Amino acid sequence: MDDSETTGESANGQNIRHGRGKKRRKTVRNSIILGVVAVLVLAAGAAAFYVLNIAKSFDDKRVVAEEVFPDETSRPPAAEPESPSYDAQNVLLLGVDLREEMSDDIDEVGGGRADAIMVMHIPSDRDEVQIMSIMRDNWVPIEGHGHAKINAALAYGGIPLMVSTVENFIDMRIDHVAVIDFDGFQGLTDALGGVEVDSEESFTTRDHAFDKGKQTLDGDEALSFVRERKAFTDGDYQRARNQQAYMRAVIARLLSRDVLTSPGKISDSVDAFAPFLTVDEELNARYLAGLGYEMRKIRNRDIHFFTSPTLGTGWEDSQSIVEPDWEEIDVLREHFAEDTVSDYTAPSSPSQ
């Protein structure tokens, strides 16, 4: 799969080795791999397969949204797996900032806008994971509201309308949803003792300065890193790449030797993360543990990132927008429908 638009390589560009002859360590590593359920459920997923009491902690601390999915009559059909394959899964990952845009109750996720929108595709063969960023300014149809920026769906109709809008965008069913307050990014980063990101550019935000290349970020710096867009000439394009760089960094950190062999660090990560996580009812420790077993052969190099195709920026209703490349999106939809997203070649970013 070609993901040169955003990474030019797989998840973190390196193969982490943990030695041979240590059967327990290898088993733990395979279990923690279910962190590829993406950074929004990464720590929780790892814990779910690590020890039962940490898994229970995740189930106790996460918030279950009462309404997640739109009316069934308007949704794409559920997948029908062909034995012995598993069914492909599409997980919608949303990053929001409750401190600035919504109430303090994370269960009240409507009324705000999503700063990070990603669809994680888990194919039926469980050999790879593809994570697609959808830039929040994509100008798309939103049921009952005409055309608007895609992140406005959350404000117009909460999670169900956001799910419906993304399902229409990819013409495929969303199976699970995870919404994280950006404070969760901050807490997870600090619980891991910081993460090393590889920044494509040097830039300065209101509170922090970032160098080009590799650097270790604490939680406050990580929050600033994933949210900034005004510092870049291509705005939301670079922000999407930075969010992907952060996800690669967290995956690499969670798969590092000192974290893999430390139940305490995994537990601390879950405790810092889960309270800021709102999920559908079925996205629980049991689901994550089962998925972790199914994906036990996956490694860092099997996680790929790309961004949904666009034509560049434009103007609608006196506001700057991102124009979706609908012709190319039709190609992408076919890959989702045929469970061949791993074969999709993402086009290069358009000139701004």
The radius of gyration is 19 Å
- CATH fold-level name: Aminopeptidase
SSE arrangement, N to C: HHHEEHEEEEHEHEEEEHHHHEHEEEH
What strand order characterises the main sheet?
1-12-7-2-3-4-13
What is the 3D shape? globular
What's the overall average pLDDT, rounded? 79
Secondary-structure-derived class: alpha+beta
Number of structurally distinct domains: 1
Instruction: Provide the β-strand percentage band.
Output: 15-25%
Biggest sheet layout: 7 strands, mixed
Helix tally?
Answer: 12
Distance between the termini: 25 Å
SSE arrangement:
Blueprint: H1 23-32, H2 42-50, H3 52-61, E1 63-64, E2 89-96, H4 98-101, E3 116-122, E4 129-133, E5 139-141, E6 147-149, H5 152-170, E7 176-181, H6 182-191, E8 195-199, E9 203-204, E10 209-210, E11 213-217, H7 219-227, H8 236-254, H9 257-260, H10 263-273, E12 277-279, H11 285-294, E13 303-307, E14 310-316, E15 319-324, H12 326-338
Parallel strand pairs: 1-12, 2-7, 4-13
Antiparallel strand pairs: 2-3, 3-4, 5-6, 7-12, 8-11, 9-10, 14-15
Helix pairs in contact: 2-3, 2-10, 2-11, 3-10, 6-7, 6-10, 7-8
